[in-house]
From TrEMBL:
Ranges for domain Zinc-ribbon: 269-288
Organism per entry: Thermalbibacter longus
Keywords: Membrane, Transmembrane, Transmembrane helix
Membrane topology label: Multi-pass membrane protein
Protein name as annotated: Zinc ribbon domain-containing protein
Region (Disordered): 181-244
Composition bias type Basic and acidic residues, residue spans: 217-232
Family matches, as InterPro entries: Colicin-V_CvpA, Zinc_ribbon_dom
Example GO biological process: toxin biosynthetic process
Subcellular location(s) per record: Membrane
């Protein structure tokens, strides 16, 4: 098989691999790759010569080989670290279909730039401007000799895009809010760790206990007041009970004549006469069995 034709096919396959990557990443991230490629080229223009000569004297490589190695390190390192690394680090919105198509187009241009500058360095430093290989390989010759036209075409293509984004860029995003469904509201009721009988904190809406559904209390209860810890003694009389204490008053059962039993009142506890319901088993006030 013709080796020059094989080289052209290999270059076309490498260019085609950039297209799905750009379609997946989008145009915004691929523009960062373009900046990484151009940064690597500029760094190689300034530092490949002196650093390549130092590398050649210390490693035994030829001078052109050292310069080529440093130039390729700048090009590949800047492309992947600055281009792809910066695109992966920045948080960007997911691209749409137009952004993905533009990303595929920009990625194809990035592949052409990366391969073109690599072939140019091979021709200058390794082949010493021997163009015999590139004359027979059509794709390699176009990539290595058409970099100026490629950069000019990219600049002309990006100019109207920049003007359009500056004039008609993305404006404020309007978010539509729909009324919350009652069933969803009930499922999303906030919970807390303490039972609902504990008083809620000041300034916070009442929430439901995680093991009990929200329901009103059977009767009014006295709120719990937290006081500082102190040693207390049982009160000897009613005058010793302060307003901060909860008094449990034991009512004496009513006495009836011998042989006559008291009839329990309907809806009342027979012991403390608190109001109860028919399905209650225990009195909510005294706790006795009904």
């Amino acid at each position: 098989m013709n080796p020059y034709l094989l080289l052209d096919v290999l270059l076309l396959i490498l260019l085609a691999l950039f297209v799905p990557i750009g379609f997946w990443r989008g145009a915004q991230r691929e523009v960062l790759v373009t900046l990484g490629v151009l940064l690597g080229v500029v760094l190689g223009e300034f530092w490949a010569g002196p650093w390549g000569q130092d590398l050649a004297t210390r490693s035994g490589l030829s001078e052109n080989g050292g310069v080529f190695l440093v130039a390729m390190l700048f090009l590949v390192g800047s492309t992947f670290l600055v281009g792809y690394g910066l695109g992966a680090a920045l948080i960007m919105p997911a691209p749409g279909l137009a952004g993905r198509l533009a990303g595929a187009l920009v990625a194809a241009g990035n592949g052409a730039l990366l391969l073109g500058f690599s072939l140019r360095d091979i021709r200058i430093f390794l082949l010493q401007n021997d163009v015999g290989l590139f004359d027979r390989a059509i794709v390699a010759r176009l990539l290595s000799e058409s970099l100026g036209w490629l950069l000019l075409g990219g600049a002309i293509a990006f100019l109207p895009v920049i003007v359009y984004l500056a004039l008609f860029g993305q404006g404020p995003v309007a978010v539509e809010y729909e009324p919350m469904d009652e069933e969803f509201e009930r499922q999303q009721t906030p919970t807390r760790r303490y039972p609902p009988r504990a008083p809620a904190s000041a300034g916070r809406p009442p929430v439901a206990y995680k093991t009990e559904p929200p329901r009103p209390a059977a009767e009014e209860t006295r709120p719990i007041r937290v006081v500082e810890e102190r040693q207390t003694h049982p009160p000897k009389s009613s005058t010793d009970i302060s307003s901060m204490d909860t008094a449990v008053l034991a009512r004496r059962p009513e006495r009836h004549p011998a042989g006559q039993s008291a009839e329990p009142l309907a809806g009342r506890c027979p012991h403390c006469h608190a109001q109860v319901r028919q399905d209650d088993v225990f009195c909510p006030r005294c706790g006795r069995i009904l």
